[in-house]
Write a structure and sequence with these properties.
By secondary structure, the protein is of the alpha+beta class. It contains 11 helices and 10 strands. Helix 1 packs parallel to helix 4 (about 55-90) and helix 2 packs antiparallel against helix 4. The model has no long low-confidence stretch (mean pLDDT about 90). The structure holds phenylalanine.
């Protein structure tokens, strides 16, 4: 058999196999068998070198043509097989089958916690407001009774911007706590009382993002706080403790108790730290909490200087304030244990889908 005959034989053999192929893997197999590195046609190409020089162009051209014909035949057959597969699928369609439901998302668990907290306080007339997260130093520190350069400022590991400093209000910062809303709320209430002639009355819940220079398993640079501020005539610690208890029972459940411990904040006097009984041992003491109590956050009676900064007469009015972390209370709630707080903001669906 001469070279030309060999080539024609390869072509015919390949074409008949291609036409008989009944699925894509089979086609791939045929392609390999003829056009692959050790394929029959590939070897024939190599054999061209054995021909006398004057024969090579003619036979070479033939071999090339066959290669193109085979490639096209394989592509055509592939298309045909694909079409008939989807045709078959259509024929097999059973319209009485139940449909495939699109996946449903849900609110992020921090958003869920914020709306739950908002609802709890709304029931006792403490309603949500919003104040700037990009804030003047004045509202975050100075008006909260932090003297200039006071070392207590360092406890709030603040992010400063490079914006121009204002003579009265100081630098622009990312607010490190929701307490920055306190004096803003007082200014609003004073204006309102001047307009209506009614006594000053504040029932504020300020929930916002806060920012601090911190990042580890229990701290994120951005987190959320909810801040309560109540100002009026004859407001006392008794009211503060009543509101704390009410929140703790409503949010954590009837079995949980709260207590206040003396502490220090520049903007409250006296100041407290609020603890809640552990959800696992209910105050007896266990591995999770050690002494039976978990720390929730700060609170206190509004410092007279802060009332003055807000334009309120501390001889006539008193108030209480508290500020707690949304992430913190969420984690303290029974049944939710998060090893690494940063997971909350990781956008990992495997994690978020669980809530
Ligand atoms: N702002 C305080 C903090 O971030 C909490 C606090 C709020 C304390 C209100 C007392 C009163 O830690």
């Amino acid at each position: 058999m001469n070279m030309e005959e060999t080539l024609i034989k390869i072509k015919n053999e390949a074409l008949s196999l291609i036409l008989e192929a009944s699925d894509i893997p089979q086609l791939e197999e045929i392609k390999l068998q003829f056009l692959g590195r050790n394929g029959k046609l590939t070897i024939a190409f190599k054999d061209l070198t054995k021909l006398p020089i004057e024969k090579r162009p003619e036979i070479g051209k033939l071999a090339n043509e066959i290669k193109i014909v085979l490639e096209e035949a394989i592509d055509d057959r592939k298309k045909l097989l694909k079409e008939s597969a989807s045709q078959k699928e259509r024929e097999n369609l059973d319209v009485t089958n139940p449909g495939i439901k699109p996946p449903l998302g849900h609110l992020h668990l921090i958003t869920q916690a914020i709306s739950e907290i908002t609802n709890i306080f709304e029931k006792i007339g403490i309603t949500r407001v919003r104040y700037p997260e990009i804030e003047w130093d004045y509202y975050a520190f100075t008006a909260l009774n932090f003297p200039e350069n006071h070392p207590a400022r360092d406890d709030w590991e603040t992010f400063f911007t490079t914006e121009e400093t204002n003579n009265k209000l100081g630098q622009i910062i990312l607010t490190p706590h929701t307490s920055s809303g306190q004096v803003r709320e007082m200014e609003k209430a004073v204006k309102q009382s001047q307009k209506t002639g009614d006594p000053i009355s504040i029932r504020m819940l300020n929930i916002a993002k806060c920012y601090r220079r911190q990042s580890d398993v229990s701290h994120t640079q951005m987190f959320h706080q909810f801040e309560g501020l109540v100002v009026g005539e004859n407001i006392s610690i008794v009211h503060l403790k009543g509101v704390l208890d009410y929140f703790v029972k409503s949010y954590f459940g009837e079995k949980r108790e709260s207590r206040i411990r003396p502490y220090h904040f520049q903007f409250t006097e006296p100041s407290f730290e609020v603890d809640v009984t552990c959800g696992v041992c209910l105050g007896k003491g266990c591995k999770l909490c050690k002494a039976g109590w978990l720390e929730m956050g700060g609170a206190g009676m509004v410092h007279p200087n802060v009332l003055k900064y807000g334009g309120i007469d501390p001889k006539k009015y008193t108030g209480f304030a508290f500020g707690w972390g949304v992430e913190r209370v969420l984690m303290m709630k029974e049944g939710i244990e998060i090893d690494d707080l940063r997971l909350l903001y990781s956008n990992k669906l495997e994690f978020l889908d669980q809530f």
